[in-house]
Amino acid sequence: MQCTTSISKMIEWQQAMKTSQQTIGFVPTMGFLHEGHAALIKEAKKNNDCVAVSIFVNPTQFGPGEDFEAYPRNLDADVRLVSQAGADIVFCPEAEEMYPTDGGIRIVPGPLADRLCGASRPGHFDGVLKVVLKLVNIVQPDTVYFGMKDAQQLAIIETFFQDYNCPAAIVRVPTVRELDGLAKSSRNVNLSDEERNEAPAIYEALQQAEVLVREGIAIEVVTQFVEETLRKKTSGAVDYVSILTYPQLELPNEISQDLIVACAVQFSKARLIDNIIFKREG
C-alpha cells in the first residue's frame, strides 16, 4: 500500500489508475479508525479495482470550543488498519497542504444543516462540504463510501452531489456497532467507564422509538419518551432528539414513510450521535 501526504502525488496516482481504466473507490475519514471504517474500506474494495482512503482531521468543520485539538489521533495504527482492510493508497495531508490559501469563497449547505447536529453546530456542515469537495476533486473516485451513523452529513452530501452533478456515486454503509449496541465511534475512547456503561441506552431508546412510531404513537410523544429515557439512563446532556423524514430531514406528516429517529448526547468529553432509519410501515 502506498502512503502520501502530497496532493500532487495523490493526483498522479489517480491519473495512473484512470489511464489503466481502473475504477476507484474512496473512503474519506478523520482518522482514529475502527471496525466501522474497515467495513467501508472492505465494501469499497469489493466493488472497485482500487481503493483510496484519506485521513485528515478537518479544521474547518470544528467550531469555537469544539474538540479539534482533543480529537483522537493515531496515524500509525490507522495506516495499519487501512492496509489490512485492503486499501491501495492512503492520503494523509496536513492542514497546510489542504488549505494553503483562503479566497473567502464558502459553500452554504442550506436548510438541511439547520436541524439535528447542525442546529447546535453552526458552520459545521459548511466545513464538511468544503473538505469533501476538495477530496473528491483530488481523488476523482468513481464511488465514495459513507457510514450511516452520520446520517445528516450523508443526506447533505447526497443532496450536494445531486444538485451539483458530481459524477461520483455515493454508497451508504450501515452503522457498525459494539456487541451492546453502541455505535462505533472514534470519540468513544473519551468516555469514562461509567459513561461507557451508560452509552448503550442511546441505541436502546432509538429502537424503542422505532417500535412506538410503527405502532402509531404520535411523533411528539415518542420524541418526549426518548428524551426522558436518555435523561434517566445516562449522565449526559441531551442535545436533541428528532424524528424527521429521510433524507429530506423535514417534519413528517401522517403519510410519511421513510423516517429517521436521531439523537445526540453530550457526555463530559465526548458528544455521541446515533440514529435509526426505517420505514413507518413494513
TrEMBL record:
Pathway where this protein functions: Cofactor biosynthesis; (R)-pantothenate biosynthesis; (R)-pantothenate from (R)-pantoate and beta-alanine: step 1/1
Q: Which reaction does it catalyse?
A: (R)-pantoate + beta-alanine + ATP = (R)-pantothenate + AMP + diphosphate + H(+)
The record places the active site at: H37
**At which positions is beta-alanine bound?**
Q61
- Where is the signal peptide, in residue numbers? none
Question: Which residues of the sequence carry a binding annotation for ATP?
Answer: 30-37, 147-150, 176, 184-187
Q: For this protein, what is any one GO molecular function term? A: pantoate-beta-alanine ligase activity
Source superkingdom: Bacteria
Q: Where in the cell is it found?
A: Cytoplasm
Give the Enzyme Commission number: 6.3.2.1
Binding site residues for (R)-pantoate: Q61, Q153
Q: Which UniProt keywords apply?
A: ATP-binding, Cytoplasm, Ligase, Nucleotide-binding, Pantothenate biosynthesis
Misc note: The reaction proceeds by a bi uni uni bi ping pong mechanism.
- Oligomeric state and partners? Homodimer.
**Family per record:** Belongs to the pantothenate synthetase family.
- State the protein's purpose: Catalyzes the condensation of pantoate with beta-alanine in an ATP-dependent reaction via a pantoyl-adenylate intermediate.
Q: What is this protein called?
A: Pantothenate synthetase
Gene that encodes the chain: panC
